[in-house]
Amino acid sequence: AQSVTQPDIHITVSEGASLELRCNYSYGATPYLFWYVQSPGQGLQLLLKYFSGDTLVQGIKGFEAEFKRSQSSFNLRKPSVHWSDAAEYFCAVGIRGSQGNLIFGKGTKLSVKP
Amino acid sequence: DAMVIQNPRYQVTQFGKPVTLSCSQTLNHNVMYWYQQKSSQAPKLLFHYYDKDFNNEADTPDNFQSRRPNTSFCFLDIRSPGLGDAAMYLCATSRGAADTQYFGPGTRLTVL
């Protein structure tokens, strides 16, 4: 069965430091890959997505992610974190040819300290 | 401009009292989804509509139903809410199957 693993439940970084959030998936073929961000009490906002092509994708708010087929990973990165980046981050996998269901990881909560 | 709108943002109901949550979209997307998200958990898909075709997840309780009267609107009906149904309910839309999903702000449901 397909699954998404975000190994870090909670990460704390200092403002201005770099960030990497990990995401690994289990699926027999290349899936669609997404990162969403959720602020407290809010819906999910799409940060970036990978469907095909260049494995390094750029998103909003200065985020990027790299698809590594050999590692079944789609890690999210940002070179310099801002206090407003504090939120919960969800990695999600979409299965090609499916009805469109997304499989979400359990999320990583990011805290930013001054 | 709001693209996926959910009303109300906060809903309080009593145990066993039916409640309806509303979602509308201005994107003219074919697919609309309802997710349940409990505290500190990932969103869990309840069901979705591809146009008028309804698709129920196997483990969605019978207590949850949905209606999509037209392209723009989709409703989530909870017939007899229990305490365990307190959660954030998220609506999402996509142009087609396996396309990017765009989420609304959610409705926080409290069951007393």
What is the number of strand segments of chain B? 11
Helix content of chain A: under 10%
Describe the largest sheet of chain A. 6 strands, mixed
Percent of residues in beta strands of chain A: over 45%
Topology:
The complex is a heterodimer of chains A (114) and B (112).
Chain A: E1 3-5, E2 10-14, E3 19-21, E4 24-26, E5 32-38, E6 44-50, E7 56-58, E8 64-68, E9 73-78, E10 87-94, E11 102-104, E12 108-113
Parallel strand pairs in A: 2-12
Antiparallel strand pairs in A: 1-4, 3-9, 5-6, 5-10, 7-8, 8-9, 10-11, 10-12
Chain B: E1 4-7, E2 10-13, E3 19-25, E4 31-37, E5 44-50, E6 53-56, E7 64-67, E8 73-78, E9 87-94, E10 102-103, E11 107-111
Parallel strand pairs in B: 2-11
Antiparallel strand pairs in B: 1-3, 3-8, 4-5, 4-9, 5-6, 7-8, 9-10, 9-11
Describe the structure.
The complex is a heterodimer of chains A (114) and B (112). Helices cover 0% and strands 52% of the residues of chain A. By secondary structure, chain A is mainly β. In chain A, the strands form 3 sheets. In chain A, strands 2, 5, 6, 10, 11 and 12 form a 6-stranded mixed beta sheet that branches. In chain A, strands 3-9-8-7 form a 4-stranded antiparallel beta sheet, with no helix packed on it. In chain A, a hairpin with a 7-residue loop joins strand 10 and strand 11. The mean pLDDT of chain A is 92. Chain B is globular and about 35 Å long. Chain B is built from no helices and 11 strands. In chain B, strands 2, 4, 5, 6, 9, 10 and 11 form a 7-stranded mixed beta sheet that branches. Chain B has strands at 4-7, 10-13, 19-25, 31-37, 44-50, 53-56, 64-67, 73-78, 87-94, 102-103, 107-111. In chain B, strand 9 and strand 10 (102-103) form a beta hairpin. With 112 residues, chain B is mainly beta. The chains are: A mainly beta (114), B mainly beta (112). The interface between A and B is medium-sized, with 24 and 28 residues.
Condensed summary:
By secondary structure, chain A is mainly beta. Helix content of chain A is 0%, strand content 52%. Chain A is built from no helices and 12 strands.
